[in-house]
Amino acid sequence: MKLASQANKLASIVLAKFHLPNTTFHNFDIDSQANKLASSLVSRDLDLSKRMIFHTTDVLNAKEGLDQYDVVFLAALVGIDKESKVKAIEHLEKYMAPGAVLMLRSAHGLRAFLYPIVDSSDLKGFEVLIIYHPSDDVVNSVVIARKLGGSNGVRDSQIGRCVVMPCNCSKVHAIIMNNFGMKKNLIEEFSAIE
Asked: Residue 54 in contact with residue 25, Cβ under 8 Å?
C-alpha cells in the first residue's frame, strides 16, 4: 500500500516538473511517511519545493480550503471499495467550489479487478464531461467532471479536445490542465492507506 501512495506523489511531481510549471500542487495523504518521502524528494529542486505542498490528513477530514482549488485529482486508491470511493466523492462535492473540476481514476472491463469502477451515477452534484478508457497498458480510466453550480471559466469545447488524444493517463491530465489554462492552485491526488 505504501508504494501506491508514493506513486501518487510521483504523478504530481511529474505533472509539476514537466507539464504544469506555473501550478501549485497541494498533495493530501493519510500516510505521513509517504508525504515525508515526497517532500524530501522535491526539496532538492528549488522550484518544485515552492510549488509542492504536502498535507497529512484523511480526505474526509479535508474541508476548509477545498473551495479554493480549480481542480481536484482523486487518486485511484482512495476508497479501496466502491462504497468508500463514493463517500470520498460525496465529501468533495460538498466542499469543492462550484465549477471546479474533479479528475478521478476509475477502471473499465477486467481492470475492475484492480480498482473500483466509478459510474456517472456515483458523481451526484457533478456534470460528467469526459470518461477516457485507455486501450493500452495503462490500467486506470480517467473521469473528468465539473461540480454543478458554476463554470469557473472552463468551457466544454476546451475539455472536448482531449477526448481523442491517444495518450496515457498522466499525459491526459497535463493536456486537459493546459487546455483549461489553469495556472492557479491545484489539488493533486488524494490518497488513502488502510
From this structure: no
